[in-house]
């Protein structure tokens, strides 16, 4: 039987100059955010600005989980209400014809237990992206991207498309030569596929009760499994992803499985470098819950306004049992409140953390 690495605070090691590097990254993001707000005359998220669906659903924790999986939020077979916000990664409103990473943010409501930070909330957020690793896996690497972060708002959709095309050509060449793709090329070369068929990952590690894990969500029901790898039509327009999501949920429900990949070897599955892919041979993704999303109006104006302008998702909206781990996660503790605070202030809207699903408009 696999033995898993027990959680201990000493698993985290501070990155050299971590506070200063985080400050620089947050300041660069803030400058980018200001440019985007001025362009749209509306405050947007500094990352994952564009939403494509806002869903109410249920997280059904499975019964009979073995003790290594029955941890934290997943300790008991319970059903929790959730809000899911689907997004794409840029901190700007790009055409959906540009292939960019997709986000799947889950807010679990009414979760009891001690908090990772003293926020008084009862939510547990899982922020997932459709790639298993983050190419810049430490705050040191992330800080090297500052110039890029700040120049992005000035780039046109066309420039971004050309970057994606270049990455796809480079990826094909490297594959032909039998060479591995660099993480950056792999990320930029991703095809523009249907968002509902993707598998989404926490990329970085978090505490999993007595253990440490990465979390992912994968299509479970046949209707979303059938969408894996289905390209977005070239003529489907600027808001193709929203149209696909709204159309799907106007008549269909979907199920995803939530999975935990437990750390079984701290050297080969590090918490301090999110660019390292945790090998599935050492520890598979194990299903712990089903995410059920019923048919609904996935993008009413009221929902869009609530999810985009009122809500905030953050890995630090968390139980202590799911404390985010590693320098990338620690840097997010400063980045998310900065972006959210600026957006709410610019728009003159109070941030609210929901206590119940009734707060999500129909
Ligand atoms: C492990 C890697 C990461 C993942 C999986 C991730 C995922 C996400 C997702 C899914 C969202 C959208 C949440 C929503 O729908 O509201 C988001 C937003 C955001 N991310 Fe990340 N992210 C990562 C790393 C980072 C890092 C390193 C930073 C900066 C240091 C960052 C800064 C932000 C900011 C500022 C927002 C907008 C927050 C707001 O205004 O509410 N992210 N991220």
Topology:
Layout: H1 18-40, E1 50-61, E2 79-88, E3 102-108, E4 124-129, H2 139-143, H3 146-151, H4 157-176, H5 183-188, E5 200-201, E6 206-208, E7 211-219, H6 222-225, H7 240-251, E8 254-262, E9 286-293, H8 301-310, H9 327-347
Antiparallel strand pairs: 1-2, 1-9, 2-3, 3-4, 5-7, 6-7, 7-8, 8-9
Bound molecules: protoporphyrin IX containing FE.
* Helical content class: 25-40%
Number of strands: 9
Described by strand count, sense and barrel closure, the largest sheet is: 9 strands, antiparallel
Rg, rounded, reads 19 Å
Bound chemical compounds: protoporphyrin IX containing FE
Q: How many domain modules?
A: 1
Indicate the CATH architecture. Beta Barrel
> What is the ordering of alpha helices and beta strands?
HEEEEHHHHEEEHHEEHH
Highest-level CATH class: Mainly Beta
State the helix count.
9
